[in-house]
Amino acid sequence: MPYKCCAYGCNNVDGVDKNIKLFRFPLNETTEKEWVNAIQRKDFKPSKYSRLCSAHFNPNDFVENPNRLVLKEGVVPSNFNYPATRIKKYTKKKITGNVYSPVLNEIVQNNSHPGYSTKLIFWCA
Ligand SMILES: [Zn+2]
């Protein structure tokens, strides 16, 4: 199972785009809290499987290294997209992409009206 970025509205997965790298949450508790604050997801608690992708960091947050992306110590992610349009894009992608859940899949298959499906997925998400 590839890791998926935990940022809201971000669909980046590990190993698809070589320009995107997924990072584990920092072990330092203070920095970890800053990451969680930056992500702004309600009741979000990172687990050891939680990953955040490189798209949420600035270029100068990385150690200069030509072969791979390495984060500098103590940096906090800052590039996030919270607007509603972004959320809509995300939910629409869910319908055409991977199956969200067996129940939802059934609803999507039985009702091809896009507005209805989007609304349902949005409500479930
Ligand atoms: Zn991401």
UniProtKB/TrEMBL annotation:
<keyword id="KW-0238">DNA-binding</keyword>
<dbReference type="Pfam" id="PF05485">
    <property type="entry name" value="THAP"/>
</dbReference>
<dbReference type="GO" id="GO:0008270">
    <property type="term" value="F:zinc ion binding"/>
</dbReference>
<dbReference type="GO" id="GO:0005654">
    <property type="term" value="C:nucleoplasm"/>
</dbReference>
<dbReference type="InterPro" id="IPR038441">
    <property type="entry name" value="THAP_Znf_sf"/>
</dbReference>
<comment type="similarity">
    <text>Belongs to the THAP1 family.</text>
</comment>
<protein>
    <recommendedName>
        <fullName>THAP-type domain-containing protein</fullName>
    </recommendedName>
</protein>
<dbReference type="GO" id="GO:0043565">
    <property type="term" value="F:sequence-specific DNA binding"/>
</dbReference>
<keyword id="KW-0862">Zinc</keyword>
<dbReference type="InterPro" id="IPR006612">
    <property type="entry name" value="THAP_Znf"/>
</dbReference>
<dbReference type="InterPro" id="IPR026516">
    <property type="entry name" value="THAP1/10"/>
</dbReference>
<keyword id="KW-0131">Cell cycle</keyword>
<keyword id="KW-0863">Zinc-finger</keyword>
<keyword id="KW-0479">Metal-binding</keyword>
<feature type="domain" description="THAP-type">
    <location>
        <begin position="1"/>
        <end position="80"/>
    </location>
</feature>
<keyword id="KW-0175">Coiled coil</keyword>
<keyword id="KW-0539">Nucleus</keyword>
<keyword id="KW-0805">Transcription regulation</keyword>
<keyword id="KW-0804">Transcription</keyword>
